[in-house]
Amino acid sequence: MKVRREGSNAKCLAYVAAFVVFQTAIILLFALTVMRIRSPKVRFGAVTVESFSTVNSSSPSFDMKLMAQVAVKNTNFGHFKYENSTVTILYGGMPVGEAAIFKGRARARQTKKFNINVDISSSRLSSNSNLGNDINAGVLPLSSQAKLKGKVHLMKVIKKKKSGEMSCTMGINLATRANKSHKFRSSTSSLYRFDGTADNCLAFSDNEAPWKELNSVQVSVNLSGK
């Protein structure tokens, strides 16, 4: 009888130990997946250049209209609420165009997409000695920057500040009105990778894939001016 009791107690202890291990594994899995809050990813989607014109004279200039889709990818299990922000287009490090990004929300495990229109003009430049040289060379180098600040809301209890940042460069071929090159550059807060077309122009945070430059971007061009 005593032997049976000892055997029964051993089984109970084994069951309790197995249950504790199982619960610990569930808690760890929950902490490493659901409770792990990541920075959102920001990208340019489809891009169209319209009403493009350049002048190469004693006072070189350019004007264009850029239409782009912006995507905010939220990989968290809670929604991401971001504040008003701005997409800035630069030439030679100086802003030549801006577009507003209005505050919004990217749902949990989803990507929010919206369109922006940017009027770009060299009239905003005070002076740039390289503009005439770039127009003569047939390639207009531009860069774009955007940063979305906000909070990730998890289970209506946890709120953590996060931001998604995008920074890239592109070269507009003046002969064909097409984008010659487009690549992402690393910054202090994020690393960037470009996967070949504007639809895959993704920004990665530091704890994800390393930065890698790949192929040139594909940008559609509308020469009708409509």
UniProtKB/TrEMBL annotation:
Residue ranges of the TM segments: 12-35
Domain Late embryogenesis abundant protein LEA-2 subgroup residues, every copy: 70-169
InterPro entries given in the database record: Lea14-like_2 (IPR055301), LEA_2 (IPR004864)
Domain of life per record: Eukaryota
Keywords: Membrane, Transmembrane, Transmembrane helix
PANTHER family: LATE EMBRYOGENESIS ABUNDANT (LEA) HYDROXYPROLINE-RICH GLYCOPROTEIN FAMILY (PTHR31852)
Protein's name in the database: Late embryogenesis abundant hydroxyproline-rich glycofamily protein
Organism, as annotated: Theobroma cacao (Cacao)
Biological classification of the source: Eukaryota, Viridiplantae, Streptophyta, Embryophyta, Tracheophyta
